Amino acid sequence: MQKVRKSDAEWRAQLSPEEYYVTRQKGTERPFSGRYWDTNQSGIYRCVGCGTALFASDTKFDAGCGWPSYFEALDPDLVREEQDTSHGMVRTEVLCNVCDAHLGHVFPDGPPPTGLRYCINSLSLDFEPSE
Prior knowledge:
Elements: H1 8-14, H2 17-25, E1 43-47, E2 53-56, E3 60-61, E4 69-70, E5 79-84, E6 91-96, E7 102-107, E8 117-120, E9 125-129
Antiparallel strand pairs: 1-2, 1-9, 3-4, 4-8, 5-6, 6-7, 7-8
């Protein structure tokens, strides 16, 4: 895997201020405010920072949390998990393993077959509809 590395200035030039806040500063968009939380179209969700395909629409489900939720990543090697102890909680952060963009968090309360809920910020994603 070829890592994508850019300077802070390059990230700021490429991303909107909101995308930069979420992906580079580990921010979170407000629930039910993102561009994809209620998208039901078929396609692929890619990292806004590097274009890596991360999630497929057929793994997306309505978790009722206000963020796009998926029960598995397209390729587990392309997402990285790290312990997040911010905000007085212990959670599992999910990052793009190619460009290190913060995507959101993963929780063990999702549907079968994985039992996982990847709770992802819309601002960290670009959607590519199926033809």
